[in-house]
Amino acid sequence: MSFVSFFDTHTHLDYLHQFTQEPLETLMQNALSAGVDKILIVAVMRKDFETIQNLTALYPAHLRYSLGLHPLHIKQHTLADLDCLEQFLSQRHKNLTAVAEIGLERAVPELTAALLWKKQYQFFEAQLHLAKQYDFPVNLHSRKSHDQLFTFLKRIDVARKGVVHGFAGSYEQAKRFLDLGYKIGVGGTITYERANKTRQAIAKLPLDGLLLETDSPDMPVFGFQGQPNRPERIENVFQALCQLRAETPEKIKEVIWQNSLHLFG
């Protein structure tokens, strides 16, 4: 089998760069040395769009990017931000490969107050329609909102589908997303033995429905709590996945690489 690399399908590399103050060259060399050949940088706010586009342009062979308005920042988002997002999407820059990070957030009580919850719905729906209009896949945020997210995805048929990132839920919840054509993002959660429900789900799901991610600098893997997460630690997620699956590591790596390229490459 030919050499197969990793594709980290969900990072905030711009924030990792800002937080650690490490040169982008160092961050990229660490990732490439660990076999991470492709990295998707995911936006959360309009103010980051241009920064992410410029970062990606420095390593066009290895970096891809996605633009979207994250539900955690729903208080700050404006209709002008949606207009700006559409403008970027319509330009179809070569390495812009998804609308992200978008979705619903119910783990922060303040954001489920009536007006903000309604605004979350409005911005999520608008961004799904933009993904559909401009033929992009989506990279989805879902915390304590799998049922609500599923309702949107069933109603608004995004042709290119996408991934439910950083999945932490049951097999039944994951299977519903897979049945709609979406992938499941496998991250640091499975490196913790206490995450039994999610580990069991990931063990049973079809391999062609899985992607790997770090969500760096967030979602640290076991053994690195309290430290910023990094793309090279996708190897830790991969090792945990191999322990849960019946397939050979080579098979797992190959299938997930192809899944990732097909969606975000």
From TrEMBL:
A divalent metal cation 2 binds at residues 141, 165. GO terms for molecular function: hydrolase activity, acting on ester bonds; metal ion binding. It holds the Pfam family TatD_DNase. A divalent metal cation 1 binds at residues 10, 12, 101, 215. GO terms for cellular component: cytosol. Keywords: Hydrolase, Metal-binding. Signal peptide: none annotated. Belongs to the metallo-dependent hydrolases superfamily. TatD-type hydrolase family. PANTHER family: D-AMINOACYL-TRNA DEACYLASE (PTHR46124), HYDROLASE (PTHR46124:SF3). This is TatD DNase family protein. It comes from Alitibacter langaaensis DSM 22999.
